[in-house]
């Protein structure tokens, strides 16, 4: 039923929907999140370093919680971009592994993939990178609820 | 037996240390998290503000805010338990604690959040339990609730790397 590729119109519609999705969420605005790229079941979101997000004042490293917020939003966006077009989603569980400290003053970019969906659950994997390209800062695995409107 | 210290001395020492611990972290201020203290027990308080909203339609707290709140509560509770003995014995001088003289904070290794119901647009509370607190690693469970202590809106478990204690 779903195809690996989709039309330009679909892609455009999805880009616009993703930007709107982020712009409508107050906390994402507070963290200055930006949509970099969306495709079928995949979302790439980024967030700039900010003094407000520092968790360790001795080093200026961003708090893990801010990375969680980016990963969570990115995961939700990936679910909404899935070709089966769910109406809405909510996080059921999210586990984050923090591999290393993100470099202070660097933008953090997260890439989430919705790798499997059932009628009511979406499974998501995500990775977050700083600008160093030294491998991921953090990786995440999550399960999200899916609302498909009238339950078939 | 040694005479007990006057209550003001005890409270001032403990509150000064807690303020130094919490006040030094910009992200805790940004989210509007404060801590209530009863003896050595801490309760994290997420003071509501509109910027914490994720879903404006419901409206509901952002899942990332919930995760961050639980993680902050875990880290502060862990640090507080690490400081407590030195603080009470006088090995640590609460009056002169600043973010730079405080021991380093524990680092999160992994954190797993279980979302049980959507976070309502109002204050939230959290308490952490240290299931295991060793010299190098700690395992912490955190519970978050809003109106009723028995109706959790989220819970989490995390592992933390403790800072080296050799100064």
UniProtKB/TrEMBL annotation, chain A:
> Pfam families from the xrefs?
4HBT
- Identify the keywords attached in UniProt to this record, alphabetized: Hydrolase
Q: Where is the Thioesterase domain?
A: 60-134
Transmembrane ranges, per UniProt, are: none
UniProt-listed PANTHER family? 1,4-DIHYDROXY-2-NAPHTHOYL-COA THIOESTERASE 1, BLR7284 PROTEIN
**Name listed for the protein in its UniProt record:** Thioesterase
Automatic annotation (TrEMBL), chain B:
What range(s) does the Thioesterase domain occupy?
61-150
Pfam short name (any one): 4HBT
User: Record's superkingdom?
Assistant: Bacteria
Name it: Thioesterase
């Amino acid at each position: 039923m779903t195809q690996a590729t989709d039309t330009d119109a679909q892609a455009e519609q999805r880009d616009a929907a993703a930007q709107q999705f982020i712009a409508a969420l107050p906390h994402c605005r507070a963290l200055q999140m930006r949509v970099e790229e969306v495709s079928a079941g995949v979302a790439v979101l980024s967030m700039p370093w900010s003094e407000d997000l520092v968790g360790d004042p001795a080093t200026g490293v961003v708090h893990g919680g801010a990375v969680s917020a980016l990963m969570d939003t990115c995961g939700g966006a990936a679910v909404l971009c899935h070709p089966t077009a769910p109406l809405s989603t909510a996080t059921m569980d999210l586990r984050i592994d923090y591999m290393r400290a993100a470099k202070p003053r660097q933008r953090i970019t997260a890439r989430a993939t919705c790798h499997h969906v059932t009628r009511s659950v979406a499974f998501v994997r995500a990775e977050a990178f700083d600008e160093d390209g030294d491998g991921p800062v953090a990786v995440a695995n999550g399960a999200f609820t899916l609302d498909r409107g009238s339950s078939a | 037996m040694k005479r007990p210290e006057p209550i003001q001395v005890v409270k001032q020492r403990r509150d000064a240390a807690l303020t130094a611990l919490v006040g030094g972290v910009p992200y805790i201020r940004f989210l509007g998290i404060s801590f209530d203290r009863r003896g050595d027990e801490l309760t994290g308080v997420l003071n509501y503000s509109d910027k914490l909203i994720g879903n404006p339609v419901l409206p509901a707290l952002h899942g990332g805010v919930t995760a961050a709140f639980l993680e902050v509560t875990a880290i502060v509770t862990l640090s507080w338990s690490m400081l407590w003995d030195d603080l009470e014995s006088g090995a640590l001088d609460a009056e002169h604690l600043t973010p730079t003289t405080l021991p380093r904070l524990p680092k999160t290794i992994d954190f797993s959040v279980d979302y049980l119901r959507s976070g309502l647009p109002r204050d939230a509370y959290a308490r952490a339990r240290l299931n295991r607190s060793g010299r190098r690693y700690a395992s912490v469970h955190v519970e978050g609730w809003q109106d009723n202590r028995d109706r959790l809106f989220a819970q989490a478990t995390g592992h933390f790397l403790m800072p080296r204690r050799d100064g």
